[in-house]
Queue: 2 jobs
Job 1
Amino acid sequence: MKEKLVIVGNGMAGIKALEELLKQDPDKYDITVFGAEPHMNYNRIMLSPVLAREQSYEDIIINDQAWYDDNNITLYTSEKITDIDRLEKIVVSENGRELPYDILWLATGSNPFILPLPGKDLPGVITFRDMRDVEEMLAASETYHDAVVIGGGLLGLEAAHGLELNGMNVTVVHRADWLMERQLDESAGFLLKSKLEERGITVLTGADTKELLGKERVEAIRLADGTEIKADLVVMAVGIYPNTTLALQADLECGRGIKVDDKLQTSDSSIYAVGECVEHRGKTYGLVSPLYEMGRVLAMNMLGANNKYRGSVTFTKLKVSGIDVFSAGSFADGPEVEDVVFRDARQGVYKRLIVLDGKLIGAVLFGDVDEGPWYFQLIKDKDNIADLREYMIFGQSLAMGAETADPLVAVSALPDEAEICGCNGVCKSEIIKSINSNGLFTLEDVRSHTKASSSCGSCTGLVEQLLKLTLGDAFETSTVTPMCDCTDYTHEDVRHLILLKELKEIPHVMQELQWKTPNGCSKCRPALNYYLLCALPGDYIDDNQSRFVNERAHANIQKNGTYSVVPRMWGGLTNANQLRAIADVVEKFEIPTVKMTGGQRIDMLGVKKEDLPAVWKDLNDAGMVSGHAYGKALRTVKTCVGEEWCRFGTQASMSMGIDLEKLTWGSWMPHKFKMAVSGCPRNCAEATIKDFGLVAVESGWELYVGGNGGMKVRACDLLCKVETKEEVYEYCQAFIQLYREEAHYLERTAPWIERVGLQHVIDQIVDNPEERSELAEKFIYSQKLVQKDPWAERASGDIDAHEFKVLAKIG
Amino acid sequence: MSLDWITVGHIDEVPFLGSRVVRTDHEDIAVFKTANGSIFALIDKCPHKGGPLSQGMVHGNSVSCPLHNWNISLESGEVIGPDQGCTRTIPIEVRKGQIYIGLCKK
C-alpha cells in the first residue's frame, strides 16, 4: 500500500511543493489536502491585481478541481484541521473527520496582525490577506467612499492603490517615519510618499492609530494626537505572523514559526513544514520565492534525497503600476558600511547601493528599477565588486561595457507580435498571456504551457526576461538554473536522482531524467560522466566519448591540433635519469618547445597525436607517469625545499608534498585541483592560493582551502590547524571528497566554497570526525579503482588504439 | 564534376559518437559516426580558428569543436547557433560495412 501524505494548507507553498513532488514521482504517495479557505488553490500574490480589477479571480487560480482529480488527490476545502494526534498519526478536522497519515506537511501559512484597538471587530474593518478580503474591498468600494489603510508597507500600499483605482478616497496611516521602512531608506520612502500623494492618496507617517470609531459599522479612526479621519472601510495591513496554532497544539517546537531544520523537518520526524508558517535558522519569510525554494527541497527529500534549504536572499518590488520601487538585501547604516548614491531630482530617481567589505549587500531603487535584477544577482553572488564599483550605480551596461544593454528594457520594448521562440513560433504576447492566465512562475511552466524555449533553448534568456517583466518579485530568479539546455534539472537534482535511481550510465540517465536532446551536448555529457563516476565509482560505466578530447587523448590539445605532454614530477622533484629521458624524447620526436610549468613540472609542447603512445612509452621506461595536466583531476603538488634544506624550514615540505601526491594522483574532480606545501610561513610554495594548501608551522600544519590564482584571484580560507601527518592525509582526502560530491562540474573549489560557505566545510570536515573519516574512506575506495597510469595502458596499445591512429592515408 | 569513391575503412572502426581522421595529401578529413550509426564527413577544420573537429564531442547530428566549443552541423558543415561559418562536407557512403568517401577526380 502507498504511504499516506496529508497536507494541511491548500495555499501556494504546500501545493507548489506537491507539484514538484508529482513531477518527480506521481504515484509514490496517497495524497490528501485540507484547505481552510473555500477557494481553490490560487495565486495569493496576485490579489493586488485582482483588487485593481486588472485580473479576475479565475485568472489567478493555479490549480482547479480537475488538477486534483487528474492527480488522484483528495481535496477538502473549507475544512480546517483542528488537531493532530502524533502518537496515532491522525489528523482531525473541525467537522470531526479523522484521517491517518504517514507523512504530514504543515503549510498553514500566516495570519495578518490585527492591532488590538478598540473597535477592531466592527464591520468594515478587514485585513488584506485572502480572496474574501478582496471581495469585501471591491464590494465596499461600490457603496462607500472613504477608506483608511493602516500600514504603509508593501501590502498596505498595494491595497491603497487598488482602493483608489476603485474610486475610493484613501488615506494611508503609517506608524513609522517613512513608508516601507523595512525595505526602503528615508529618501526613497519620501519619494514614494510624494508619488502616492500625486495620485490622490493621502499619506500620514509617524501616525499612531488609537481607536476605531463607529456603531453599526466603522465610521472613522482616531489617531494618538486626536485627529479623526472618516473611514467606511479600514484595511489593517500591519504585517503577518506565521500560523502556528495547530503546530503548538500538537506540541511541535515553535518559535516565531514552526521550527524546521534544513530538510524542513519539524521536531517530529514524520511532520514537515513549508512556507510562511516556517521558522528556519531563526528567519521567517513572507515573500513567494523562498516558499518555492522550500517546496523544491521538500519534494526532493520526500523521494529520499538529502537536499538542504539554506535560507533565501529576497527582494521586493512594489506592484503599483507607474511607481517603481525595488529593494534587496540589507541597508543598515554602520561605520564599515559604504554607500553609493545617485539622485536625479527632476526625474524622481533615487538609487542607493550599500557596500560592505567590497561586496554589494543591499540596493534601494526608486523611479528607475531596471537594474534591480542585476544588483540582486550581485548581492546573491557576494562577488567582489571592486571592478564594477565606479560605474555600478549607472547600471550594468556602463559598468561592464556598453555592449551589454539592459535586456529587460529591450524585451519590454518589443512589440506584442515579436517572435520570441523561433523553433515553436511563439510570440511575446502569447507568453505573457499564458503567464498571467495560467499563473506561471517558472521557466519550466512556460515551456510546458507554450513550448517557448523548449527546443533549442536559445531564447531561454528572453523567456526569463518576460517572466521577470510580468511577475516582478514573484519570478523565481534564484531557484532554477538547469544544468544545460538539455534538461530542466539542476546539477543538484541530477546528482540526487543518479543516486536515488542508481543510474550507472549516461544513456540511462538521459532516459530516466527525460533529456530533451538525443545524446546531450558538450556541456552535460562530461558533467554526467563525472557525476556517475563520483556517485558509483565501482559500478558506473565510463563513456570515453563524453570526455573532452584532452581526457580522451591524455594530453592537452593546442591551437594547431598538436598536443602537450607533462609527466608527473612528484612534489616537483626530478633527477638526472628523468631529465635525460625527457631530453632524449624531445630530440627523438622533434618536440619544438620545452617549458617549465607554474606547478614545478616540465611541459613538452607540439607533440603529434600519433606520436603520443611512443612518447609515453619512453617516459614510462624512465619511471615517469601521466601528470594529468590535461584533466579535471588532481594536477600538481607544488613544494618548497622545506626543512630538508632551507634554514628557515620548520617541516619536511618536499616529502609531505610527495606523500599527498601519491595519495591523490589519478582522482577525477569537478575541475582541476592544485595543491602546494610550504615548509614555513614565508610560504614560498604559494600554498594559500591553491585548492588545498599546507603551511608548516613549528607545531604542525595549517590547512588552507579554496584558493585560486587564476582568472579571479582568491586567497585560501584557513580550514584548521593539525599536528600530525596522518591528520593532514585524512583532512586532505575528506576535503577532496566533499568537493567531489558537492561542487558542480567545472566549479573550482573557490566558487564552490563561496556558494556553500566556509562554515559548511568546517562543519563537515573539522567539527565532525565521523563525517571526515567517512569522506576519507570513500575517497580511498575510489582511488583504489583509478590509480593506474593511463599512459602505460595506452603506450602498450591495449586501450583506445584507434584514438591515436588515422583511419586511412590516401593520395 | 565526377567523384572518385575511395574506401577508407570499415564502419566499426569509427566509434559511436566519435570520429576518425583520413589523411590526404593536402588536408585531413574527419569521418564521424553518430549515436544511431549515421556516418558523415567534413574537412577536419573548424571555420572559426581551424580546430580539428575530429577531436570534438559528437552529439545529435553535430560536433563541438575542441578549441572554442563552436557547434558544427555534420549534415551541412554549417555553424549552429549564434556564430557563423561553414566547413566543407565530403560525400560519404557506406556499402556492405565499408566506408567510401568521394573525392574530386584530378
Note: Residues 491-547 of chain A form one domain.
Job 2
Amino acid sequence: MSNWLEKFFIQNGLVVAFLSVAVIMVVSSFISRRITKKKIPDSAVAIVIGLLLAYIGGRIGKGSKGIADVSIFSGFGLMGGAMLRDFAVVSTAMGASFDEIRKSGLIGLLSLFIGVVGTFVVGAVLAVTFGYTDAKSITTIGAGACTFIVGPITGAAIGAESHIIAISIAAGVVKSILVTIATPAMARSIGLNNPQAAMAYGGLMGTTSGVTAGLAATDPRLVPYGAMTATFYTGLGCLLCPSVLYYLVTLVMQ
Amino acid sequence: MTIYGLGILSACFLAGQLFGEILGRLIGIDANIGGVGFAMILLIVANDKLIRKDLLPPATQQGILFWSAMYIPVIVAMSATQNVVGAFSGGLMAVVAGIIPTAAMFFLIPVLSRIRQSKDKKP
C-alpha cells in the first residue's frame, strides 16, 4: 500500500476501527439471520469474527495484539483496550437493579472463592499430571488457569521461570476464548437466564473479557451482573495464588 | 445535557478505579482490585439517587446509555485484539490448563443457583 495512504489510516486509527466494527456487525447480523436462522445471536457471530481477525492479525503482524498489530488497524487497540472496555462495562450498570445485586451478594462472594480456589486446584493437578514437580511452576500454571492476569502476576511474585509464565498467560487466553464461545451455547442447559445465575457465573469464571463477551452474546441484560463479580475475581486470584495457595502447594509437594 | 451524563459516568469510573488501585497498593500487589465493580456500584447508587431527585432528564441519561449501547462493538474490537496465536503456541499444557478447570466450573453454576433458590423458599 502506498505510504501516504497507510499513514492516513494510521492517523485516523480509532475512526478506522469504528468503521471496521460497524462492517463486522452488519455482516454478523446478516449471517445470524440468513445462515443460522437466528439460532446464533449476531453478537456471538461478531465476537467469533473478531477472534478470527485476531488470529489472522497475529499471523501477519507477528505480535501479541491480534489485528491491532497490522498498522492500519492499530485503532482496534484503543477501541478494544482496557480503558474503553471497562468504561463501557461500567456504563451497563445503568440497567442493573441494586436489589438484585444485594439479594445475591452472598452467592456472588461464595462463587468467587469457589471459582478461584477450584480453578487453581484443577489447574495445579493438571500441571502435576504433565510432569511438573516444582511448587513454583505448579502454582504459576494453576494461577494461569484462573486468568491471563493472575498467572503472570503470580509467576513474577514467586519467581517462576519465564517459559512457565508464558504457558500461564496462554492458558488464561485459552480460557477467555473458551468462555466467550461456550457461554451462549451452554446458557440454556446451565440455567443462565437470571441475574443471580449471572452473578454466580461471573464469580466462577472470572475472566472479565470472556464473561462479558459471553454474556453479551447470550443476553445483554445479564452483562452488568456477571461483570460485577468477575471484576473481583482477578483481584482475589492475585491475592490468594502467590500467598496461601502457593504455600499449600509447597506443603503438598514436599 | 448529554455531557452531564458522560461526566457522571466518568466520575464514577475514575473514583471506582482509583479505589481499586489504592486497595491493590494497600494489600501489596501490583494490580487493580475490583475497580470496575466499585465503579458499577457507584453508578447504580448515583443513578438511583439522581432519578429520585428528578435530576436525571433523558438528555443526561443519553450520555451514559450511549456507552452501554457501544458495549458490544467495544467487546468485538477487544476480541479482535486477543493474542489468539499465542494461546495456541503455549502448547498442550496451556490448552489443557485453559479448558479443563473452566469446564469443571461450568457445572457448578446450576449448583450455586440452586442454593439460592432453596434459600428463597424458606419463609
Note: The two ends of chain B are 47 Å apart (CA to CA).
